[in-house]
Each structure stands twice: as C-alpha cells, then as structure tokens.
Amino acid sequence: MLLIRLLLACLLISLLSPLSTADASSRASAQAPDRQALLLLINKLSYDDLALMPEVQKLSARGAVALMNVNTGGKRTDANAYVTMAAGVPARLDAKDVLVYNADEQVHDVPVTAIHTGLHDQKVDDEVLLLSLPRILRSQERWNYSASAVSLGDALHSRGMKTAVLGASDKGGELWRPAALFTSDGDGRTPYGEVGGALFKRDPARPYGVRTDYEKLWSEYVRLKQRAALLVFDLADLYRVAEYSSLLDSKRLTDLRREVLAEIDRFVGKLAAEIGPNRQLLIASPQVSAAAAAKREWLSPVVVAGGSVQAGSVLTSATTRREGIVSNLDIAPTLLQFLRIERPAGMIGYPLQGVTGLKQEQLAALKEASVRTYNHRSTVLGALGALVGLGLVFGALRLFLGVRVHFRLIWIRALLWAGLALPLCLFLLPLLHPTSLWEVAGGLVVLSLLLVAIPFRIMPFCQTLSGRMVWLSAWTVCAVVIDAWQGGMLAKRGLLSYDPIVGARYYGVGNEYMGVVIGAAVLLYAALLRTSRTSRIKRGWLEAGALIGGLFLTAFFASPALGTNTGGALTAAATTGLCYALQKRLRPLPTAGVLLASLLGAGGLLLLLNLPSAPPSHIGAAAGQVLTGGALEMVHILARKSDMFVRLLFSSVWPPLFLLVLSLFAYALFTPALLPKRVWQERDRPYRTAVGGMLCGAMIGLFTNDSGIVVLAMMSLFALFPTLLIWLEAERGRGETPKRSIPLRHLR
After folding, report:
1. Cα separation of 401 and 313, whole Å?
2. Is the Cβ–Cβ distance between 62 and 279 less than 8 Å?
3. Stretch 87-110: mean pLDDT, rounded?
C-alpha cells in the first residue's frame, strides 16, 4: 500500500512540474511586450562612414535612411544633442548635470540606492538611476518648452511599458552616461540596464584603455529583449576615439576609427536579424564626426528598419517636409509612434516616415548641395550686402548733400536697381545649379542681365521708372508665390532663403522672402499708382485690387500648405490695412481701428486654415501646444520669440545702425520741407502714402516675427531704393553736377 502511494506521488509530481513550467513561461510571455523599439546611438558617426559599414548598408536597403539636422537649443555639444533628441524639443544641458549610475554602484562610499531614496523618498530595485534629474528639471526653465528631458521614458512608463539602457560613454574615470535620458521616467528610474564597467573590456591599445564588450552586450540584450519595450544602446567607442584624437597621429586615428566601425557594423548585423513587423531598429548619431564638423557638414546619418518602414526608401517628417532630411527632434516621436504611444504635448517633432520620391543613392549629392549652400551663404550675402550699402550711400550723398562723387549718376542708379533685383536673382539662382562662389557670381550676373538690364533696354513698358518698378516687383512676387505653390524647390535651395543646416525653417516661405514678397507687392501697388496718372487705369480699381491682393497674401502666408508663416500673415494684413488707411487719409484713431481689424482678421484666418484636420505644420503645432498647455505655453512661445528677437537685434552694431538710417529716411519721406513741395504733395502723394504704409507694416513685422529685423530690412529695401530712384529721376543729365540737390541746412 505504501509503495502504491509513493508511485502515485511521483506521478503527480511529474505531471505538476511541466504544468508549473508552462505556467511560468506563459507569465513571462504575458509580460513580454508585443512591440519593441531598439535605439542604437553611435555618437560621432558621419554619413560618409556608412560606406565602411556593409551591414548598415544592408539594413538601409531593408529600410530607410536620411540626413539628420543636429541643431540643439544651444551650441552643438554632445550633452545638448542627447537631451534634444530625448526631449523632442531644442534643449541644452551641461554635461556635468548628467549623473547616471547602476543601483549597485556607490558615490563617495555611499550606495546609489540610498542617495536616490533620499532624493525621491522611494525604494529602488536593481535599476539604472538618474540621480541628477531634479537639477535637470530645474534647468529646463531656460528652454522655454514644456517638454521634459525624460519625456520619452516617462510616457512609456506611465502606460506600463518598461525601458532598458545598455552602454556608457565613460572616458576612464570620467563618467558620462547620457543614453539614460531616453529611458528614465519622472523619478529618474530605468527598470533595466547596465551602464557601468561590466560591458567594457580592458584594452590598453584603445582610448582610455577600454573597449565595448559586444559579447556581453549581446547577452544583456538577449536577457532583456522579452522585458523592455524600448532598449537603448549607447555604442560609445567611436566617441572615445574622437575625444582621444588630439593624442593620435592621423594614421592611427584612421585605423582606430575603421576598427571601431567594423565592430559596430558586426553588432548591427546581429541586431538586424532580430527586426520584423513588431520590432524596429533605429540608428542615429547625436553629433557628427570631427572631420564632418571641420567641413561644416552638420548632418548626421539616421537609419530605420523594421515595422512598416518601406524597403529602399528615404526618410522625411512633417517637421522638415524634405525628402532625405529630418530633424533630431523627430527621433523620440518616431519611437513613440511605433510603440503606439501618443506623443506628449510638449514634443514638437513628428514621426519619421519612408518615401520613395528620392533614391538613397541621391543622399550624398543632397548632402553636398546642402553643405555648399550653408558654406556659401554668409560669404555671398556679405558681399551683396556691401554692394547694396554702396548704392545706398552713394545715392544719399549725391541727393541729400550734393556731394560730388566719382560715380556717374547712371552707375548710382544701376547700383540701386541691382539692389532691388538681388532678391529675385538669388531666388532664381538654383535653376543654374552653381557649385562654387565663382559660379554663383556668374549666375547672378547672367540673371541680372536677363531680368533687369536687357528688359529695361528693349521693352517699351520698361522705358519709364514706374514701368521698371512694376516689372521687377511683379516678377518677384510671382516667383516666390508660384514656387511655394509647386512645393518650394527654389526656396529650399536659395542662398537668401532658409537651409536645412541652419534649421530655423525647412519649408514654406521664410522671414527673408516674406519681407521681400510683402515689400515687392506694396511697391507694385505704388508703382501702378504712379502709372495711373498717365494711363487709363482707374485708381478705384487699383485700391480694390490692392485689398484683394492683401487678402490673398494673408491667406497665402497663413496656409500650412503654402507660406506657413504666422508673422507673415499678420504683417501682410497689417500692411494692407495701413496702406488703405493712409490712402484714405484717415485720422490716427480710425487708422488704429483698421490696423486692429486687420490683425484680428489675420488671426481668424490663421485659426481657420490651421485646424487639426489641416496638414501638420509648426503653426498647427504651436496652436496645439497653446490649446493643451494654456497660458503657460503661450508664455513659453513669447519667451522664445523674444529671446531670438533680442539676439538678432543686438547681435552686432549693424541692426541699430540700420534702424537709425531707416528713421532718417522716414523723416525725409514725410517732411515736405526736405524736397520740392510739388514732388510729394501734388504728384507722388499716392506713392508716398503706399510706401509709408509699407514702412509702418514693416514695423509691425519687426515685432510679430522672431527675426523681425530681417523682415524690416527686406521690406525697407523696397521702400528705400525705389524712393531714392524717384528722387534722383530729376538728376538725369550728362554733367556730374546734379540739377537738384537737397541743401544740408534743410536737415537741421
């Protein structure tokens, strides 16, 4: 009987054991995330390095690749780059403010767990702890954004998902573990990971005597891949080589980089075998390599594969609307979208998506073109600014002071016309595909001949001053509007426009050409008013056309699919209203009412055209932030705009000097004693009021745009130069002595 009982007990145990094992397995699988995102951070990786990484190239062919803007909320430092990517907003952070430890480490012989418990009054387990989070959160007030440095990890933890971080950027005894910013929650806790020396292998031949132990790294990944929804790898060997480069000769530096790239590439090949519909791998470099930085190539590579990413595509996002170019603000939203987590309200980036309009093989040419535009921009604009300044100075000396100058009058007027034509020539210059500064100069000469010199000589319509103004201003407005209607290909490549490395704007019409379009439109109206004196054009029809045109431009700038410029919509509406009020000779109080009604109308149009159903844009994003964040978010937006406005206004002595010159011009324009009374009060009063409305509207643009001084300068160009040309019109003659000049005593 006892034997039978023993046999039954053994049978029962044998049956229960597999059941308990199966139950444990089912619990583990229940805890495993149904979707998993793998983020591989390879700091100091350049786009050219991908040619040395065959596994990454294979991964790109299976997914999508792009160039990523690495701008931050401050300087292009490593700490700023990591926190910007993690927060999804332009952010800045001191490297010393990132203190990350494993739970089993100590700081000055004090257990890290005890320190964290003292800071947060919470018990912790075997976790990775961001001890300096309270200090980081206090420093976020400088960002003027509501997003947090740990928005990504906190969004995942709040929905029950786990995160893990593996790897560190330690340099000998200097601890530097910024990848934990992507995985920490609001208490500074990452449930899983290893950021200490356990993943290092001693190697005296490597910088700081260590190298990543990829075998242990893979073992940790295998251990955690059934637990964490987001795994972040910080592969920092390339970063350590870059930090050590000052102690290496060029050959040893090149050899070390090749060794490190080969090791990283092999690890990527192993991870690539893991991806599928429910597992996505994203590779990004927070900052570019030293060699790329020396060439001012501030575009790092980003590769995405797995999930629903189309094979062989290139990446874009609603942040840039540029095929092949994305922003570092888009990394966190991409991970959240794949994990089916709603993007936190404070993030301003958008998820990456693959498109096939551009081939991956064309990215190298896109990079070269973007870098060329960035490098040529300051040189070309500086030279052309000097040229425009010469025209202004010589014209003013000749006209106001009667000073004998070495230039004949025809050359002074040629300089003024060249200054007016420059915005249009620079806008059309990408059609000629210049690749060097000499080609840029030659292209501008060719366009000036085709658009200005030749038409002014052979076209009957352009034989009068007013006709030339109509010709030039009409083409300027049409070129920018039509280009925006067709996708903005010229604006995206223009030297006076925005560029993807500066990163202030990627699409629509920037503040430079916003000022150009509004200034040229008012000049077109003013020139037609002058023409109406000698033609059959009725002034009433011109005024009606000006109002319709102003409404059209307001809608054009307010549209998220066209101009996408909030300040432009407000400036266009204000300028239209002020021109109308001055033409009708309204008193100050009714004029203020017209201005207020115009601004309110533009605001209503902005809201109407940027509803949630509209295409994503920075206008819609700002509106959404205000709706969710309330008054505080509005304060943040105003603070950011004010900060940029002040920085540009006082960046050098030139903006204040320009304001002084513009004030003197406005004084001369509206003071009849400075010029023969019959010129302005009898013959050119409509022109003067139109230009006066343009200048007043430019002052509105000064305060409704973060780069308002740029808007003011561009609009003032179309007020200053045409007016100088009109004033110099009476000075035609072969002699060098002007027929009429304004005595110095009139300026008293």
Report:
1. 63
2. no
3. 88
d(CA 660, CA 662): 5
Identify the residue with better confidence: 576 or 612: 576
Burial 243-266 (b: 16+ CB within 10 A, else e): bbbeeeeeeebeebbeebbebbbe
pLDDT value, residue 28: 39
CA distances from 13 to 7, 18, 20, 412 (A): 10, 9, 10, 104
C-beta of residue 475 within 8 angstroms of C-beta of residue 532: no
Taking CA atoms, 416 is separated from 462, 584, 721, in Å, by: 16, 30, 6
What's the rounded Cα separation, in Å, for the pair 431 and 489? 10
Q: How confident is the model at residue 574 (pLDDT cuts 50, 70, 90)?
A: very high
One-letter-per-residue 3-state SS of 360-391: HHHHHHHHHHHHHHHHHHHHHHHHHHHHHHHH
Copy the structure tokens of residue 95. Answer: 């490297």
Give the integer Cα–Cα distance in Å for 542 and 532.
9
* All structural domains of the chain: 38-358 (3.40.720.10), 368-747 (no CATH)
Residue 52 has pLDDT above 90, yes or no: yes
Element containing residue 628 per DSSP (H, E): helix 618-629
Q: Each residue of 631-641: pLDDT tens digit?
A: 666 666 666 66
The pair phi, psi for residue 184, each rounded to 5°, is -80, 150
* Integer CA distances (angstroms), 480 to 177, 515, 527, in order: 47, 11, 20
Q: In this prediction, what percent of the chain has a pLDDT beyond 70?
A: 83
Antiparallel, parallel or unpaired: β 128-130 and 100-102: antiparallel
Question: What was the pLDDT predicted at 401?
Answer: 63
- Pick 401 or 422 by higher pLDDT: 422
Query: Measured between alpha carbons, how far is 140 from 138 in angstroms, rounded to an integer?
Result: 5
588: its two tokens: 């100050």
The gap between the terminal CA atoms of the chain, to the nearest Å, is 129
pLDDT of residue 19: 36
Let me know: does 599 contact 581? Beta carbons within 8 Å.
Answer: no
645-658 pLDDT tens trace: 666 666 666 677 67
User: Considering the entire predicted model, what is its pTM?
Assistant: 0.86
Q: How far apart are CA 655 and CA 712, in angstroms?
A: 10
